Amino acid sequence: MNKGAAGLASVGLLAHLPQSLSAMAGRKAVRMPIGFQSFVVKKEIAENLEGTLKRLQGYGYEQVEMCSPSGYVKYGFEPLAKYSGQELKRIIADSGLDCVSCHFTMEEMKNNLDDRIDFAQQMGLRHMVFSGGLSTDKADELKSRCETVNQIGEKIKKAGMVTGYHNHNSEFDMKIDGAPVYDMILKELDPDLVKMQFQTAAIRSGYKAADYFKKYPGRFISAHLQDYSPQDNTKEVVLGQGISDWREFFAAGKKAGLQLVFVEMESNPGTLKNSVTYLKNL
């Protein structure tokens, strides 16, 4: 066989490789929009909303998850409370970002739900996420709180949106009958009314998102991403430089129903740029 024929034969063999092998080199682990949580840049947002959003969009982020300005006044979001949902949506869009998810406090969801739903609809949100509020190691109290969240979730569902619940490490560190409180939360929350947003900081307490994703398929709509130093798990590092296996995370996330991820490098906002670069190249 001459060299030309051999070359053509090689091309033919490559063309008939299994699709899974031929596509492997170009396959991306992250096949969803990558966002950041606004809480980590609250100081910058308060001082220069438009400029901060455009800077983060320039890093490569496609989404921002906001915090309800009226609910987060005491956390530094007071300068944003002057905007209507429509105005805030326009400012975010002008920066080149989308916002379909927002955090709300338990207090405002319980006491001011109709107004918060109106704000969310003006914003064009898909997800209204409880930023916490279920942490207790008293079973009866936890059941009561979960029932309240279910009732709110039903009203939000009727308004055309999805309710989410965001964990912190306390839901794993607290135990009821020897199991993490988080496990009981998953049992008590109605999966048709309330989905979950997993904060990966739980790995510091020994709990991996991937394990919960596999155990509870369809329960998770989004996640907050953090990574920690192998030498000191109290120190945040750029995603991919720490103790988390992100390929395992995203592979399991498909089964979980994961739609969105938000980088939340709370103690070190300077890692935001390199983290989105890592995810886009994963």
TrEMBL record:
Pfam families: AP_endonuc_2. One of its GO terms (molecular function) is isomerase activity. InterPro entries: IolE/XylAMocC-like, Xyl_isomerase-like_sf, Xyl_isomerase-like_TIM-brl. Signal peptide: none annotated. It comes from the Bacteria. The keyword Magnesium does not apply. This is Xylose isomerase. The lineage of its organism: Bacteria, Pseudomonadati, Bacteroidota, Cytophagia, Cytophagales.
